[in-house]
């Protein structure tokens, strides 16, 4: 023992090798951080360049309804204004922002852009924070890929165009509910506080967009997966069921054909359309390119198959749940659930199978869930050492930045064309070219624009 203790140099020999390895890791880690910074800067530039601050289409309806509520100014009137359906959605959050925009913001739409930007940034930060908890330095750097997916040019499209704000608003509360709920499952000491926060976020999610209702079955799945207390599971079931029933009350579209009137051929055609649209939806944003429509649909259906396989594997293996694994599961369930909702809603339509680019944020979160799963797997099974993991991360992050630049440039051109059309219209112009960009009823658009201008001058 004396001989061993008298020669400590023997135990220091691995030191230089470890230091050299750490130095080798610093470069890819620094490169990952730099790529994240570039992604963030390009995201901000895209938001700035595509921002449109002139109301059009549904935004005119929001302003019209807000002016009626301001003139009525009664408790029942405000309640009806906030919760009255817009199509099949109840846009209470959007209606509140419209009121703030008219009364405090001068009707310039900047409130929409600022609030939506904050919502997207909070989603990105929340997902990175979950992945970075108790993680090593290189794993925290690799986790930057997750917010890079969220802070993409397709998300910038939803931020810069206030008419698309409904999707980030709903998803911000949905992601918040997932993060808090998973925390309540794995952190018993703070379970009550986190559970209450999750329920509040989940309750607000549908009031950005109807797809927010998907949060309730997702939370139930996570609760069962994480062996949440039966009393809390019952609470989620009752609150979610009650809100869903109230939300859908007098709000479901009527059926145009009875079940008995549907032929087998029509049913098969509808089923094929549902599957195809789900693939197109999950193939966003690539499915927006006509030449890539079919490959993107195949890609989307492949992603759906991988996602379903992962979810079924969870049910079979019953592996211990972590906060990050639960959140990733929630993102996977949300992506699949919303794709099914969108596909079912278009089962009997005769229009072309085209998924709007504004839906891509849902698919980005599905991608984020898959990437989170892969990163968590890498932590348990490094590929030939941590350097290989970092190199893979660098390659993927570089592709994201490249895609950001290409898609951002395309977004500039599309937004510039739309902006010129919207800004060139003035009340009294009834040219057919404005029917798609301003409003199908230009007479209605005339009245709303004049009413808004008169209200802003009176203030």
From TrEMBL:
S-adenosyl-L-methionine in keyword set: no
Organism: Asaia krungthepensis NRIC 0535
Domain of life: Bacteria
Keywords: Membrane, Transmembrane, Transmembrane helix
Protein name: Transmembrane protein
Segments traversing the membrane: 30-52, 110-130, 142-161, 167-187, 194-216, 228-249, 270-286, 292-312, 324-347, 359-378, 390-412
Entry keyword annotation includes Cell division: no
